[in-house]
Design a protein that fits this description.
Blueprint (H helix, E strand, L loop, with lengths): L2 E8 L7 H17 L4 E3 L17 H17 L4 E10 L2 E10 L2 E7 L20 E7 L2 E7 L9 H8 L4 E6 L7 H16 L2 E6 L1 E4 L2 E4 L3 E3 L5 E4 L6 E8 H7 L13 E7 L20 H19 L5 E4 L4 H14 L4 E5 L7 H14 L2 E4 L3 H15 L13 H22 L2 E4 L3 H6 L12 E2 L6 H15 L6 H5 L19 H13 L4 H5 L5 H13 L1 H6 L31 H4 L2
Parallel strand pairs: 1-2, 2-3, 6-15, 7-8, 8-9, 16-17, 16-19, 17-18, 19-20
Antiparallel strand pairs: 1-14, 3-4, 4-5, 6-7, 9-12, 10-11, 12-13
Helix pairs in contact: 1-2, 6-7, 6-12, 7-8, 7-12, 9-10, 14-16
Length: about 600
Amino acid sequence: MDQIRFAMAQINPTVGDLTGNRDKIVKFVSDARSLGCDIVIFPELAVCGYPPEDLLFKPKFIEDSSKILHEIAHKAENITVIAGCVDKVKDDLFNAAALIRDKEIICMYHKILLPNYGVFDEKRYFKAGNESLAFKLDGLKIGVNICEDIWEGNGPASFEALNMGAPVIINISASPYCAGKLHLRESMLSSRARETASIILYNNMVGGQDELVFDGGSMILGWQGSILARGRQFEEDLVLFDLNVEEYLKHRKVPHRKIITNGFKPKEISLKKCEIKIRPPFPPRRIEKLGSIEEVYKALVLGTKDYAVKNGFKKAVLGLSGGIDSALVAAIAVDALGKDNVVGVTMPSIYTKEETRADAVIVARSLGIKVLTIPISNVFQSYLRTLRKDFSAKGVSASGGKGNVAEENIQARIRGNFLMALSNKFDWLVLTTGNKSEMSTGYCTLYGDMAGGFAVIKDVPKTVVYHLVEYRNAVANKEIIPKTIIKRAPSAELRPNQKDQDTLPPYSTLDSILKLYVEEDKSFSEIVGSHFDPRVVKKVISMVDRNEYKRRQGPPGIKITPKAFGKDRRLPITSKYTDTGNLKKKEILK
């Protein structure tokens, strides 16, 4: 045995774009072959994209996916390919890894551990496999498994390494991003490598798919747990690795043989190495991990870009209020789509302060985007005149001087209507600007500021919004988003002298409570035990619970926290259960 060159193709497929995914895979196969690689590896379900969801219930989709896989195999000459795909056996569907060699699909590995928590729903579609695969390449035994199979300590990956004696483990993955996920993966993979004394090649998908962002960050770990090579985060990459087989096996200290009895059946195949006539040297490279705020920003940019591009939108439009949320969304949109493809709209009302309006224009100019100004005052007055008779019980005047939340929401809905009209007329994607703190508590207007096609920061807490703005200004080395916006007290400006804190606790307090209640499922008593005012906690919990109906009707947005609204957190709209004690509603809301 001599040197084996591996390539991990960290690609960005599109769900359902079978021919596009085929062409991308074939190109990376060609690139890997030209670089003298023996094996090229693609992520989980790379052929059809991940997650395909209920497309998997369509027989034609499965049939077409199979045809595309065979077309890919036909292009795989003089190289070994491992590609994630769907495999149908009789009436059963499997999440699979195809082992391809010289235009032939040699065998399929079927994923054994199917995740069924959070955003994952694999038991809805797939049957679990029961065979662990290891193939010999010129005498070196290499185990193959998929995503979840490596997360369990005594799972398929460990079985391949310890029971089947594979010193190299390949794991193809589609692991979605959330803050801190890369560190979690590193820690797990490092432990698995040390436990099994195996080299692990972990290839993760990259790209945005609806509310999910796959961050790449593929890595190769040595048998002592150290990272030997990294893939870039949030972009496609081809990660190369040369393994000197003799040297590795000579120095590898095999752990005490641990027999794993979990019902897995071993399956082994032998392959000859391809003839590699030229193996050009590749320069060593060092990829540094992104900082915590930088990776969140990159996730938001990639998620926005892929949602727009993959759904056929060339341009996006958003309401520029002069506040920090819309300024951040505008900056993300520009970084995702380019300044010529983003339009900002200011829609001042009788309550819009001049400095707020001016800041909206400053942001637009700093970003270089086109800005439209469409005042809403006349339309607002027209609404009030039309509704005057029916609103008279509440004492509203034609000037809107006295009223309640109805008058505030009318203004937000006028703005949402204008943005949707521009979207319909020019085929622009409307980006909404509400953050997670607002979405959690219902401090947003259904069919108003919630109206749009994509909610860029719906999973970003307000306190994190400020950090992201500081990061973006630091990258630009200038104030793209001016300090006046950052320092101004947040306000919806839907009534005179309105401030967010008239309705909500301070955002630092609110976000801490929301993290405990929404993301960690802590009870009222547990949250109060973390030194929060019981009355404030009761108010926040009540607001979160009774606004599930709003969130259910909002547009999709990018997941960046461990538990986002939507697939991560599925609560009934109609529910009598409450964790706010016996206080009356009016007392809670004081």
